[in-house]
């Protein structure tokens, strides 16, 4: 890993509009349909919002990157509908969704905003460090229990977080379903812990289609 810390001051967005209520949403104590701020998402109904909010970690990460690089920030659901049209998500039934699908997601992001977006089906921890040091942000596929650094997660991958910093001590994450005041924003995950959660794949995002400036 590089010898110094690199940190990008990326704005944070939760995949739910009420970031302070994430503990209730993830435990089922409160339905996403009861998010008091659901209309900010641009959803057409509480039901639409409740279906997509638990699945919008990738869109939350994209919104962070867009805001960081100065692009107009669409609400979550209009952005999600664009991603569906681009093939970045595929509904496979009434209650199931396949996504985020990296290649069409990257093509859409590149053509829509002129960002560099590179699918990396194999991305070692050392490469995450190098990309962040280069000025890029990195979407990482991790297990959702990274929010508490669970000593025995149920697998690797399945949830997307955004690497916004990196250094000798670990990778710094914005987690769309992290816990407020603990693991939502600028949460340092030691490299020695990352392997338990990280699926070894992601998408590198840069400020321009030629790479980060």
From TrEMBL:
Gene3D superfamilies: Cysteine proteinases (3.90.70.10). It comes from the Bacteria. InterPro entries: Peptidase_C39-like. Residues 10-176 form the Peptidase C39-like domain. This is C39 family peptidase. It comes from Streptomyces formicae.
């Amino acid at each position: 890993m590089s010898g110094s810390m690199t940190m990008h001051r990326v704005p944070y967005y939760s995949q739910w509009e009420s970031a302070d209520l994430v503990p209730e949403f993830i435990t089922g104590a409160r339905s996403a349909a009861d998010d008091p701020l659901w209309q900010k998402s641009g959803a057409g109904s509480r039901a639409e919002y409740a279906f997509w909010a638990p699945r919008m970690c990738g869109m939350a990460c994209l919104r962070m990157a867009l805001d960081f690089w100065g692009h107009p920030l669409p609400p979550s659901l209009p952005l999600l509908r664009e991603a569906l049209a681009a093939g970045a998500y595929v509904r496979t039934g009434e209650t199931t969704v396949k996504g985020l699908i990296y290649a069409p997601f990257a093509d859409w992001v590149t053509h829509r905003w002129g960002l560099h977006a590179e699918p990396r089906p194999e991305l070692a921890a050392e490469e995450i460090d190098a990309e962040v040091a280069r000025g890029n942000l990195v979407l990482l596929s991790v297990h959702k229990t990274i929010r508490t650094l669970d000593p025995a997660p149920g697998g690797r991958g399945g949830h997307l977080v955004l690497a916004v910093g990196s250094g000798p001590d670990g990778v710094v994450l914005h987690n769309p379903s992290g816990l407020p005041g603990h693991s939502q924003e600028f949460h340092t995950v030691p490299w020695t812990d990352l392997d338990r959660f990280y699926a070894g794949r992601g998408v590198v995002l840069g400020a321009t289609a030629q790479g980060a400036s």
